[in-house]
Design a protein that fits this description.
The structure is a homodimer of 65-residue chains. Chain A has 65 residues and is mostly helical. Chain A is built from three helices and two strands, in the order αβαβα. Chain A is 71% helix and 6% strand.
């Protein structure tokens, strides 16, 4: 049911320069990010409706952060 | 320089059931998640070193959250 590929975690880890990261840690990171994404989208959805719109725009995401 | 594919944002948006999300909003969401991932990995890296390890494990990620 994962939505963000683990390869994306690898790319971010390499960019940061962290040397060794266990597979379990990558999975935990992905899960945290997916939960955060869901919460952000839910809040942004309420914010866009509150503004009388049906489309979530960039500003809704930033306000939801 | 993006590490998380936009398609992952689409999958999460569909799961939440948000009807319409602008492309700009998806990009903003991705950027927030990538920044959050970097910050989490940096903190987890310090936490693992503090514990005398060189490998980041799941518990470091959870502590960094």
């Amino acid at each position: 049911m994962s939505k963000i590929p683990l390869a994306a975690m690898d790319r971010i880890i390499r960019e940061i320069g962290a040397e060794r990261v266990s597979e379990d840690a990558k999975e935990a990171l992905r899960e945290i990010l997916e939960d955060e994404a869901k919460e952000l989208i839910r809040r942004a959805d309420r914010i866009s409706k509150h503004a009388g719109r049906t489309t979530i725009v960039k500003e809704d995401i930033h306000l939801a952060k």
